[in-house]
Amino acid sequence: MALPMPTKRRSAFVQSPVENCTPPDTSSASEDEGSLRRRQAATLAQSLQSSEFWINRSLQGSSTSSSASSTLSHGDTSKSQSQGLNHTHNHTQGNALADVLAHTRIESSSVQPDITSSVPQERGPRGEPGPGPAVRGMSRGQSRSSMMETADGVPVNSRVSTKIQQLLNTLKRPKRPPLSEFFLDDAEEIVEVPRPDPNTPRPEGRQMVPVKGEPLGVVSNWPPALQASLARWGATQAKSPALTTLDITGKPLYTLTYGKLWSRSLKLAYTLLNKLGTKSEPVLKPGDRVALVYPNSDPGMFWVAFYGCLLAEVIPVPIEVPLSRKDAGGQQIGFLLGSCGIGLALTSEVCLKGLPKTPSGEIVQFKGWPRLRWVVTDTKYLTKPSKDWQPHIPTANTDTAYIEYKASKEGTVMGVAVSKLSMLTHCQALTQACNYCEGETLVNVLDFKKDMGLWHGVLTSVMNRIHTISVPYAVMKACPLSWVQRVHVSKARVALVKCRDLHWAMMAHREQKDTNLSSLRMLIVADGANPWSVSSCDAFLNVFQSHGLKPEVICPCASSPEGMTVAIRRPGARGAPLPARAVLSMGGLSHSVIRVNTEDKNSALTVQDVGHVMPGALMCIVRPDGSPMLCKTDEIGEIVLNSRAGGTMYYGLPGVTKNTFEVIPVNSGGTPIGDVTFIRTGLLGFVGPGSLVFVVGKTEGLLLVSGRRHNADDLVATALAVEPVKTVYRGRIAVFSVTVFYDERIVIVAEQRPDASEEDSFQWMSRVLQAIDSIHQVGLYCLALVPANTLPKTPLGGIHVSETKQCFLDGSLHPCNILMCPHTCVTNLPKPRQKQPVGVGPASIMVGNLVAGKRIAQAAGRELALIEDQELSRKHQFLSEALQWRAQSDPDHVLFMLLNAKGAAVSTATCLQLHKRAEKITASLQERGGLNTGDSVVLLYPPGIDLIAAFYGCLYAGCIPVTVRPPHPQNLAATLPTVRMIIDVSKAACILTTQSLMKTLRSKEAAASVNVKTWPTIIDTDDLSRKRPPPIYKPPTAEMLAYLDFSVSTTGMLTGVKISHAAVSALCRSVKLQCELYSSRQVAICLDPYCGLGFVLWCISSVYSGHQSILIPPMELESSLPLWLSTLSQYKIRDTFCSYSVMELCTKGLGTQTETLKARGLNLSCVRSCVVVAEERPRLALSQSFSKLFKDLGLSPRAVSTAFGSRVNLAICLQGTAGPDPSTVYVDMKSLRHDRVRLVERGAPQSLPLMESGTILPGVRVIIVNPETKGPLGDSHLGEIWVNSPHNASGYYTIYGEESLQAAHFNMRLSFGEPHTLWARTGYLGFVRRTELLDASGDRHDALFVVGSLDETLELRGLRYHPIDIETSVSRAHRSIAESAVFTWTNLLVVVAELSGSEQEALDLVPLVTNVVLEEHHLIVGVVVVVDPGVIPINSRGEKQRMHLRDSFLADQLDPIYVAYNM
């Protein structure tokens, strides 16, 4: 572990992070601070050089001691000098001097900062200081007769230098960076910024000139308003057909004439205004908004409703028919209805019947919708207007006529308001551009509720008395050729289609031989602006040219909800040459530059023009982001339009409106080009030769990756060009980007055909990756295939992209195949850290610490010698003697009570009973085992009193007991080998156990996994002889071993440590003092009794201290969850010990039952301390949830705390009764990876909460040491925790006499500082921090914070990661992740996640896990393994066995649900 070198890290903090939250005398700055302060001191020195300037100023200022003191009072100065500083701690002057340097912003070197100015800062509206800099400048020539003041508002005497006065004032200021700075984004510090490529193409043309459309012709008979047209045709051409609708087979269903349309609209207008409410309180007034809910198969009803609303002067808002409560985007439609203030919906009877209903027959309340009143508009429900009623048809003005909905890239739905004047002007412009004539026939395949379908097929057609034939989407699905047949049958002059309709008709044309399209003069392609429209138009022409289709009639156009029709190609003269196409380079496009592609055919984009600008409009191309600067002629930008025929605003959203509808383009100098406002259309393009408009994409499909722009439609086109297309459906691909780790990442989701095999799919996916990489030079982050028909749809069958993206981010997409490629596309990861060689010796570090005023990071518990336990420890130094003494002096005192699952005491043991039973076991060891002093004996018992008696029996016999967890009868193959290993390693001469376990050891099942013939002597202690055994007692010495403690560490290592009699006594004494244990006390223990502190509390502590232990075996909780808590309540227990597994069981299992438990009378207010026994970093989140959940049952939030022990010392910390409450600090995770500690505020990004691991036990000393140099570290530095204490273990007990290798762990000496003390290395990283709290003796309390085990850490990219931190992030990534574990394999990070939900969610986890680890830990996950719950192995202390898991993974024994290898 390299020493933290003073690297220059650009940070939002000026001071050392630790100091921000540290009280005065621990002023512990990190190494990088000195250099910072030196630099600032130099800056200040420069600014002080011009001394005469300052002296002159102070002399002149002092003479005018005016009575009106300066307007800038003390409070204002401190505000202006340090805006928003938090006044918290006062601090020492030395640091504060440096602090003024940190907070003074020097404006410019030529102008000296003036702190004395009496001119008040300009104030904001609420009297806050203006935005001026913290330090004002004043030029030499300015008046200097102003009153001078310090920050205290006291005039300065001229003899005192203002600068010194300012320094003195600043010393009073508290030292803490302004809070806002805690949350500055640290992207600059983390992200590797790619260097700009010198070969990047840049625009070189001149600035573009706005393009003007032809003037809008003035025709004498154009109506004053659109409703006037309808009135005219309804009266003069009543029999003329207005609209023909088709049935599902494509045959005409009914035709609505202009007369009928007029009379029905009139009836509806009259009904809306006069028949819905009362005369005094009408429901609708002119100007109110009304929703129009009509299905696509019923254009007739829609036309009547739309024109009825126009005649009633209410504003129609056409929306889609909601199909279910959970429609894709339904909630956003609700937002639209809310922002438009809609309370009424018009619909047809058939549609109303089809809407989802509640059981009581009411229409369901759709998610996010306001409450609506539904009105049916079928003719039979309408009232004929009275003779004297006439609709009011005013001349078109700027009032809103209708509102068209529009979904943004994020999925929000806004309403674009179109004024009556815009509506009329737009119809006039379309009539002129398309040269519409009265009486023509038009076939409309588009959605008539919005966009081109509405503008041509409903509005312009009525203006010109055109006969519209509407072909609904449902007919197109059943018979794709229906629109072509309609054109043929009715000799239609104009058809309105999308590329999709061209494609479908072309695929189905073989069925129809005799169609003739020669009548068409215009085939308007509504999405002709799409990059792939060229191929659809060409292919369609290719097939239908022989059916009379003329090439010049194909008219692509470009439109947007805001700008309405932007440009349309006018129908060409017969035989005129078709306009040329642009063949553009994809590379240039990604940099927004137009370059003709010459080299590679594959990376070219062919675009067709969309004709000229609309009549009466003015067009510019501006930069899509930032200020609307005019583009150069060879640059791609957003098309903006100035026209009377565009939308006017987003209804009800004035803020967003301003940025879109009121844009004034500026030239390269930043000056506006005029005062006319333009509308942003959301289309990206350029103006080509001959003022032809070319569109290459939309802003909402723009993906900005690493500074380059890619268009979603282009990526879809590339994906579709990859063979075999039979893997996925053509029209069912969504492309979007998600922000992960400071950049956009591209995701493609497609629907997979049911017959595609997994192999086909993967082949297709990898080809798509390669194609997109080579053509677009961009890496894909994720490619997912989902089952057919599962992507959220838009009403007309397209894919709802924003909803798909939301599903992807929520983890509810349920892919069936997924490919993640983070390694190729995440290019902005920081460079791996190079470990610096430790060039500085520990001595110089220590001297450096002392110079910096830091204390050495060490802490100690209370002194043991001062608090002698008179009676016991002098007379009865050892445990075995303590039990004999208790059996004589207090024979009937109950020491132990064992409970079963029902909470009943199964067995108890008094001092005498325990002593007698121990004697019998000693005798049987002598008789049947023939053991010598110092032999090891394995104790194989379930948790209980037998285990305790056997332990003392061994001590009486002078043998060394080794407690071992019995094998699990249902899982012998996994658990018995561990038992065998401990027996072999400890060289046990004998096994003490129960009858049933003895049978298990010798069973056939056992023989399958171990050799049962070579067990040592097995003695069952169930039926010991009744007769009184001879007293055998072999007194121990202090150095003799009392027992061996074997445990499997989290890294899978089996380690046994030797515990001497002296260590046992010292430990018991420490715990007794810390927890104030006396014979009158009752303590509840819910722990595994086989190793560590759990064993000490279960078997030993009571005998030493005399308190009564109530023993609750943790496995009993599986059958009776409330057992532990109800015991605490029933026996009014003050002190209890448990493990994290027990706490988690209670939190998960009883969290919802607190009310029931309360009703049963469960009360935890008696609990004073609940200690979690662990050998790991405290699990803060778990302890907090436990405290919060059971607060209602009276549990004090202060009661829960943790203990900390390790192999070398079983109990280092334990929150007793005397010390202060455990404190919590927040450390910066980035610094932690660099082996540094930087304290931050709660809630700061990348902060990690750490809780103190309990108070250090009496007699224990800890010191924080650099594990490489073995030198002591300063306060709040991260290092290895070393411990010195009378109860340290004596050493590792290992086979083959390898003690010498590890013995060093137990007798380490510091390389500098205090070379005589012997320390033991715990193998854990942590830090000590002196807090403001006082301990029992009145000194400041030193808190020990454990960060994690050194063996467990993962070294990745040169940084040190703690698995638990990555696992915490992973478990948060998706609601179905029950548990997770991480490890490394070669240099890859492997994440194993347990899936608690259904298996279809398995693949949802892969991208979310990858995202969260990249985002929070800056690591790319190499492999994601999704497994069933319970696969991750956990030891008895509730710690994950990550190395076992790794071995199982490598041996392919996990049986995973899914393994994703991120490429």
Describe the structure.
By secondary structure, the protein is an alpha/beta fold. It contains 44 helices and 60 strands. It has a nine-stranded mixed β-sheet with strand order 5-4-13-12-14-15-16-17-20, with helices on both faces. The protein is elongated and about 130 Å long. Mean pLDDT is 84; it is low at 1-159 and 177-183.
What attributes characterize this protein structure?
1463 residues, alpha/beta, 9-stranded mixed β-sheet, 8-stranded mixed β-sheet
From the spread of the alpha carbons, the general shape counts as elongated
The counted number of beta strands is 60
Question: How do the strands of the widest beta sheet line up side by side?
Answer: 5-4-13-12-14-15-16-17-20
Tell me the number of helical segments per DSSP (H or I, 4 or more residues long): 44
Helicity, as a percent range? 25-40%
Structural class: alpha/beta
Regions with little confidence, pLDDT below 50 for 5+ residues? 1-159, 177-183
Average of pLDDT: 84
- Strand count, sense and closure of the main sheet? 9 strands, mixed
Strand share of the residues? Answer: 15-25%
Radius of gyration: 41 Å
N- and C-termini, Cα separation? 31 Å
